[in-house]
Amino acid sequence: MQSDFVLRGGTVVDADRDGERLDLLIQNGKIAALLAPGTPVAEGVAEVAIDGLHVFPGLIDAHVHFGFGEKITEYETETIYAAQGGFTTILGYFLNNEAYTEVYEREQNYARTRAYVDYGFHFSVANEQHVEQMKEYVQRYGVTSFKYFMNFRGEEGRYLGLDGTDDGYFHDMLAESARIGGVKIVCHTENIEIVNRLRRKIQAQNGSTLKDWAATKPPFTEAESCVRAMLFAEHLGAQIYIPHLSTRMALDEVRRWRGRYDAVHVETCPHYLTHTEDSDLGSVGKANPPFRSADDVEAMWEGLRDGSIDVVASDHVPRKLATKQRPLWLASQGFPGTATILPVLLSEGYHKGRLSLRRIAEVLTRAPARIFDLSPTKGAIAVGADADFTVVDIDKERVVKAEELGSYSDYSLYDGWKLKGWPVRTIVRGTTVMQDGKITGQAGFGEYIARKTSV
Ligand SMILES: [Zn+2]
Fold this sequence. Notes:
The chain is α/β, with parallel strands linked by helices. It has helices at residues 74-84, 100-111, 128-132, 134-141, 167-180, 192-204, 210-215, 219-236, 248-258, 271-274, 294-306, 341-350, 357-371, and strands at 5-8, 11-14, 17-21, 23-27, 30-35, 46-49, 54-57, 59-65, 87-94, 118-124, 145-149, 184-188, 239-242, 264-268, 311-312, 389-399, 418-428, 431-435, 438-439. The chain has 2 domains: 5-54 and 385-439, Urease, subunit C, domain 1 (Roll), CATH 2.30.40.10; 59-371, Metal-dependent hydrolases (TIM Barrel, Alpha-Beta Barrel), CATH 3.20.20.140.
């Protein structure tokens, strides 16, 4: 089914190239050669012309949530949605109280026959059994990253059936991750004890706006928690990853700390680059962390530019709009986001002079590939890597319409926004799975990626 071909006429962009004219030879789903434009290839090799377009390594969304939509079919809908956005690999989080041995088998049974793009899993550690079995998860399932919610104390995680944990648990879990070696602990950083008191106060005053929501979780509650995560990590020799960073205060702490201990990686999300607490979206704009100030938005762009933020990922949650259209305190949190990441970064970043194409490629491909053990197969345009490509028309303007993107969710934060710079073709291991907005791949083509720790 996979035939060899040469991609001709494109401009290659990756973490080392801001745009270089190269032809790419693909054999058996792998990159076989990077060729000077026009280099002849063996007879019988198909020619695919992409003149005027840019070619990125297949994009990686390192922060997607599974289990919030229609459980079984979401592997189909959400990987179609990923393909529409130019994403060739997604890493999804699970958050369960049961052993992940059961979760893994069940979810794989859903995913295996349904995924359109490649996928991997992160597990959230929430009880003693998860810590005891962490090494087994690494060895048996190739899961090398684990999430810990620093805010799930007391009753905070009860809505998910989780008991609270404490700093002693965090300490032992990080120590175990360091013993195993190479494992990344993804730390949701939030000082919930301060948040809880503020929330009670603001609810008592009938707060109901996004600004009120943001006021329950001020920047200090993120920054303080980041500092503690970094101090714990340094003390125990653990590697941590801070997802969805949203404030200048926390980013400044990370910058300071990295001079002292550098096994700290940082991610932000598209909405922290485009939306503020003054947004008129109401409860539709409810997320955790909340939308922040205009200065925080500017800080996120600065962090991406200077390299203090490593990764942009969506925090994609495929729920229906109806779960958002409730009073603020009852509305669900988070939004769908994978398919609009690239247009947002090109439109608001590249075209506004804030980010180079090279940096966009780095934060969406090489950085997540290296941090989450997908390299060298994924995340680069290099001989021997998987032939995963995102072919992009950087000048194409298109108005976002959620219904065209294929997610189970039925809205986008960017509905009605005209964005400039869109993926026009998504190639996974040499097979085109999306072209000009049409899905050309097949359910079950996407493969599970068992990762190996790079110790
Ligand atoms: Zn998340």
